[in-house]
Amino acid sequence: MIKVAPSILSADFAYLADEIKKIETAGADWVHIDVMDGTFVPNLTFGAPVVKKIRKVTDLFFDCHLMVNNPEQYIEDFADAGADMVVVHAEATKHLHRCVQYIKNKGMQAGVALNPASPLCLVEEILPDVDIVLLMSVNPGFGGQSFIETTVPKIARLRKMIDDAGLNIEIQVDGGINDKTSKLVREAGATVLVAGSYVYGAADTKAAIASLKA
Fold first, then answer.
1. What CATH number corresponds to the domain at position 150?
2. Which residues of 157-179 are buried (b: 16+ CB within 10 A; e: fewer)?
3. What is the pLDDT of residues 107-165, one digit of tens each?
4. Residue 65 annotated in ligand binding
5. Its catalytic activity (predicted)?
6. What is the SS3 string spanning 107-120?
7. What are the residues facing 85 on neighbouring strands?
């Protein structure tokens, strides 16, 4: 089953609670929360205190994508804030296995993310320990970017790697997802689609979310 996780990076921060309720009513499965530190990526967004506040307004699954260096130092804060899953970048930690185990020990699902130019071999050894692999289909740091086409065969290779190992792991894709690119990534094997500007910029939020699953 395809899940849609709208990114609140594209929401109106002045009305964040309302923006979250809007996607919940429109059929979103998860809330995708892009956490940026201004170092690992060239932007600065929000941290665990914001997650703790918005946790009060919805029961949707909180998918926290940490685009930060040394993510292990923030994991406990996100667990306390009510995150359901924390995804860290393979490129951002020296001890990926330890970081993933820390996330799980805090009672959350764990995932690993890869930038567009990062090879799949970076996650091959950690696959048995994660719930999800996030493939970036834009360079992380900003919303509204164009989809990188080479992500499609990368998804297919990852799907084969997962299936050959007999594992049950979600493949999430983030960046430039719309009604056209969503079809490409679903056919390649993606199961969770992150969409920000496409969902929040739509005149009909419900229709936009439905189109990503169609």
1. 3.20.20.70
2. ebbebbeeeeeebbbbbbbbbbe
3. 999 999 999 999 999 999 999 999 999 999 999 877 777 899 999 999 999 999 999 99
4. yes
5. D-ribulose 5-phosphate = D-xylulose 5-phosphate
6. CCEEEEEECCCCCC
7. 63, 109
175 is known to lie in a ligand binding site: yes
Give the closest residue to 78 by CA, choosing from 44, 54, 112. 54
pLDDT of residue 98: 98
Which residues are part of the catalytic machinery? 34, 174
What proportion of the chain, given as a percentage, has pLDDT over 70? Answer: 100
Annotated binding-site residue? 189: no
pLDDT range class, residue 182, cuts 50, 70, 90: very high
| pTM, rounded to two decimals | 0.96
Range of the domain at 156: 3-213
Q: Collapse the DSSP code of 192 into the 3-class scheme (helix H, G, I; strand E, B; otherwise coil) and give the result.
A: strand
The total domain count for the chain is 1
